[in-house]
Amino acid sequence: MNNLVDSAEQLARGMGLPPRLKHFLGEVYFQFVLWRTSRQIATLAEGQGLDRKTLDAMRRAWRNPLYTATLDYLEELSHLAASAEGPVLECGSGLSTLLLGLLTQRRGLRVWSLEHLPRWHDRVAMSLQKCRIENVELCLAPLRNYDAYSWYAPPLERMPKDFRLVVCDGPPGTTPGGRYGLLPIMGEHLAPDCVILFDDASRQGEAQVLRRWAEETGIRVNLVDAGRGLAVVTLS
Ligand SMILES: C[S@@+](CC[C@H](N)C(=O)[O-])C[C@H]1O[C@@H](n2cnc3c(N)ncnc32)[C@H](O)[C@@H]1O
After folding, report:
1. Which of 33, 81, 111, 130 is the most buried (most CB within 10 A)?
2. How many whole angstroms from its chain centre is CA 173?
């Protein structure tokens, strides 16, 4: 079986193949890896996340390495999503959106994902549809200027008021204020014991956001792995 999977992966990488065929094979291979992952999820015990090998296979099959969260981040996300007890908010969509949907759907939870780029929104929406992941509300939320910073313009009136987990991997670092807007804009929609999984915490701009949040709101920032830039933030 492993040999077969390795051959399929090599074929999907398609060195020397015409681009359209290469793309087609890549899509078929991704569907296969995703199907295998969803079968594995069905066998996981309550609260158990996916193993690194499976996440690595998903990451490679997704074929967007520059923008996709690291394996460490996906591993932490997988554990938190598997034990989340309420709705999940995501800032910045991608492979993480599909994983969040898969890991929470059997417990009837909903995932709200904010995406500012129309083309990327359509790409992720199509993957959700192809993979029949129906518990994700993927919102096209353009970046808006809130005077002191920019952040997504989310459909607040439709959104839950008790998010228990936030996966914070956007907006991009070049956005004025970076990820700062999450707490002022979404604060009233987060449950008191909400956990925020924060990527790139060792980058200067993101570290500054964490410091500002801590000063202004008293939240507790727990650097899971400062070297690799992963932070878990608790509100209480
Ligand atoms: C760090 S990425 C989010 C990655 C996502 N959380 C994941 O793990 O797959 C942040 C933003 O980059 C943008 N982005 C993702 N892939 C892109 C691509 N291939 N080209 C341009 N922008 C991209 C999207 O707007 C996305 O919300």
Report:
1. 111
2. 16
CA distance linking residue 37 with residue 166, whole number of Å: 23
Q: Which domains does the chain have, with CATH numbers?
A: 47-234 (3.40.50.150)
Ligand 1 centre and the CA of 45: distance in Å? 30
Give residue ranges with CB within 6 A of ligand 1.
64, 67-69, 92-96, 115-117, 120, 169-170, 172
User: Quick one: CA torsion of 113, 116, 117, 122, rounded to 10 degrees?
Assistant: 30
Query: Can you give the pLDDT at residue 135?
Result: 98
Q: Locate 154 and state its tokens.
A: 């989310």
- Which pLDDT score is estimated for 180? 96
Look at residue 134 and tell me whether its pLDDT is greater than 70.
Answer: yes
Work out the burial of residue 35: count CB atoms within 10 Å of its CB; fewer than 13 is exposed, 13-18 middle, 19 or more buried.
Answer: exposed
Q: What is the CA radius of gyration of the chain?
A: 18
DSSP designation for 107:
T
94 CA → ligand 1 middle, Å: 6
